[in-house]
Amino acid sequence: MSNLIYIQVEPRNVNFINRVMEGYEYLGVVSTLDRFAGILVIRATPDTAGEVHKILAHLPVSVQYIER
Fold first, then answer.
1. CATH code 3.30.70 for 4-65
2. What is the pLDDT of residue 26?
3. Secondary structure string (H, E, C) spanning the chain
4. Matching Pfam families, A to Z (predicted)?
5. Which pLDDT tens digits describe the chain residue by residue (68 residues)?
6. What is the pLDDT of residue 1?
7. Which of 17, 18, 36, 52 has its CA 20 to 30 A from that of 28?
8. How far apart are CA 31 and CA 46, in angstroms?
9. What is the pTM of this model?
């Protein structure tokens, strides 16, 4: 499992994803790669990557994993 998690969300949900990660005490640090396409990378640690995946799976917005 990679510590770099690449996802795509609707551009309007970029800030939501960032706030969720902040709320979880930065289990992962979110960086926007393309704000118009909603492409983000979440930098997690080996210890937190699994938790980040679980959180993303239960969000009320569509999250697609992408390859980079």
1. yes
2. 77
3. CCCEEEEECCHHHHHHHHHHHHHCCCCEEEEEEECCCCEEEEEECCCCHHHHHHHHHCCCCCCEECCC
4. DUF4911 (PF16256)
5. 579 999 999 999 999 999 999 999 879 999 999 999 999 999 999 999 999 999 999 999 999 999 98
6. 55
7. 36
8. 18
9. 0.92
Residues comprising the chain, all counted: 68
Closest by alpha carbon to 62, among 8, 5, 4? 8
> Where in the chain are the domains?
4-65
Residue 18 region by backbone torsions, left for phi larger than 0, else alpha for psi between -120 and 50, else beta: alpha
